């Protein structure tokens, strides 16, 4: 008796027919939330601020405001970093509220 060759049944080797339709669970492009350029610019601006503002605050305040006291300068830098984060959160909340008003106007 000869050994019968088996075909590979691995998913990589399976071929899909041309009639195969994508699953309905896959989100269509119209169902996805759109990311506008304004959102990307806002994220980049706040990211740059979160990097630069605390550093600039630290090095500016260490000599001019706190006369070499690094602890107070670091505290000021931490305060500025928190203010940038709070600003980003508020900007995101304001932006999130504005589309709801536009949708209500379109429904009327």
From TrEMBL:
Belongs to the VMA21 family. It is found in: Endoplasmic reticulum membrane; Endoplasmic reticulum-Golgi intermediate compartment membrane; Cytoplasmic vesicle, COPII-coated vesicle membrane. Residues 22-33 have a biased composition (Low complexity). A motif (Prevents secretion from ER) lies at residues 105-108. Residues 1-13 have a biased composition (Basic residues). GO terms for biological process: vacuolar proton-transporting V-type ATPase complex assembly. It comes from Hesseltinella vesiculosa. Pfam families: VMA21. This is Uncharacterized protein. Required for the assembly of the V0 complex of the vacuolar ATPase (V-ATPase) in the endoplasmic reticulum. Residues 1-33 are annotated as: Disordered. One of its GO terms (cellular component) is endoplasmic reticulum-Golgi intermediate compartment membrane.
